[in-house]
Fold this sequence. Notes:
The complex is a heterodimer. Chain A is mainly β.
Amino acid sequence: DAKTTQPPSMDCAEGRAANLPCNHSTISGNEYVYWYRQIHSQGPQYIIHGLKNNETNEMASLIITEDRKSSTLILPHATLRDTAVYYCIVRVGGSQGNLIFGKGTKLSVKP
Amino acid sequence: EAGVTQFPSHSVIEKGQTVTLRCDPISGHDNLYWYRRVMGKEIKFLLHFVKESKQDESGMPNNRFLAERTGGTYSTLKVQPAELEDSGVYFCASSPLLASTYNEQFFGPGTRLTVL
């Protein structure tokens, strides 16, 4: 079973920041948090991952709380193309392990 | 560089028939994963190859499913005989064999299987 819980849906205005929360209260000390998204009818796409430090790349930022029990994915300037289902995943089995998907958050970016 | 490709993109078969799905990973990727999403459910892991060896097949639902990766390149997933509940989207993903903590899985577009 997935070790994460996410709100089922969120709306965001185009050009605004989208903040997607995730709870992972049972995460272990060496387990990473990964974020993927799935745009309609495509395969899941990697966004970002982190262990305990905040991370930023060209797509998004990841904020992980100090106790590591929750995190927030931030899309700084959401566009209509960011409309997708976003999955927060606690990866077990190390860097080669499989991904355990939950239900994700359906983000709708509106003009 | 070509991404992960899957064939066919869609398959419609009747219950009891056999279907074979194919996945071509990104060249040089030793890790190959199969996942599927059945109607209304989450994406679920099926199995993981490292080169030609099955590393983890704990997600395979039953013995009607047979995955192979001869030669450690492309992989096939055969469903025989197909049942109605096998309908869904089957995804393949690949990644390089790295020791680092960062190891992104690259997903293919999926094969949509419909069993009538």
